[in-house]
Amino acid sequence: MKWKKVVMWASVLMLAGGTVIFADEAVQSVRVYINGSESGEDGVVIDGKAYLPLREVADSLGAQVTWNNAGKKATIIKPNVHLVLFKDNAIFGKVSKGNKYTFSVFAQVDNLKTSISAIKISIVDPRGKEKTIQSQTQEITKDNFWYRTEDVQYSFDYAGKYAVRFSLKVNPDDEWTTVSELLISSES
């Protein structure tokens, strides 16, 4: 009787071990690089198809992801947004460290496939401190529009790259998603 139990348990353990090894070979981890930088999360390859972490990839590419749990549906929204900076009526993008400039931001938005509840334009200094230049919390239903901020005075106190960002919210309760970014170089 003991001999039958030993054979049965040995068979179960071999089968379980073989299943784990097979599963490990069927699902392979894959490193993800986005614009030349390694992502913080890995993807997986299952049956020859790569599956990537959707939210991280979308965030890296400047796209909004919405999730409908009832319909098990993910939607990626990536409008075309072009940013231009104006000082008076001249385009600019290079500044000197320690100087204060008065400028406005012009955004051209097209290919917007959904309505949005709010937009925000902000500037982030080289240390990561963000300042909102202007925001609007009115529903926008057009698929294309232009938006220009009022003049803003900003002091470029540090050398390095300053990021001017255009962010949006699809729903009022969503987090801000940056969908476009323009860099300003501040030099000594």
TrEMBL record:
Domain of life: Bacteria
InterPro entries on file: Cu_amine_oxidase-like_N, Mao_N_sf
Keywords linked to the UniProt accession: Signal
Keyword presence, Translocase: no
Residue intervals of the Copper amine oxidase-like N-terminal domain: 42-118
Residues in the signal sequence: 1-23
Protein known as: Stalk domain-containing protein
Naturally occurring in which organism (per UniProt): Paenibacillus thailandensis
Species classification: Bacteria, Bacillati, Bacillota, Bacilli, Bacillales
